[in-house]
Amino acid sequence: MFFKIIVGLGNRGTLYENTRHNIGFVAIDYFAKILGYTTWKQEKIMSALAIKIPQTDGLLLLVKPDTFMNLSGIPIAKICSFYKIPSSEVVVICDDISLDVGTTKITERVGTAGHNGIKSILEKIGPGFIRFRIGIGRKRYPEMDLADHVLSKFSAEEVEILTKKMPTIGDNLKLLLDKGVSSAMNIVNRRICTQNHTEQL
Fold first, then answer.
1. Start-end of H helices in 66-180
2. Fewer Cβ neighbours under 10 Å: the N or C end of the chain?
3. How far is CA 43 from CA 31, 144, 176, in A?
4. Which among 21, 115, 149, 197 is annotated as catalytic?
5. Half-sphere exposure of 106 (CA within 13 A, CB side)
6. Phi and psi angles of residue 67, each rounded to the nearest 5 degrees, phi first
7. What are 12-51's pLDDT values in tens digits?
8. What percent of the chain has pLDDT over 70?
9. Cβ within 8 Å of residue 171, ≥6 positions away
């Protein structure tokens, strides 16, 4: 196992359920389920919900910050400190407006791309963590406010696309855990290049 913490980003509360910005919560819930876990435990001292999964080489933590998106770095920093886990062993699942709905891309050592959750994490634990980016689609029209877009709900058509792509998202997360970032990036990111090339033909 190459990573010890997988964090799904989102905003807590019913108001934000099923919004684009909460795709990290959706993905990590799905991933927990395929690993055989459905019960999240409130870790109040760390301001997060967590699932602890024993591994032969340690402990895998699935985490959902119990804060608003722009404060995501606080609970992650607490967890890393408590378990003495470096940022290089942290995977953060986040939404990405530059990718088509349901498309995944793995990146490391890049900026915030305007994502407040990523900005908070960078400030609290540094740049070493891995971004597992899931596309939520671009703004419907250029002048649309970005906050309105990311806090909007997926259309029925987009929900259908996400449902079909969720098994691939789960497989890509498993690949990242089992093979490490270099191998996973080569496989997952190459699929995007191949898809884009095919669409241009």
1. 73-83, 116-125, 146-150, 156-179
2. C
3. 20, 37, 25
4. 21
5. 25
6. -135, 175
7. 889 999 899 999 999 999 999 999 999 999 998 889 999 9
8. 95
9. none
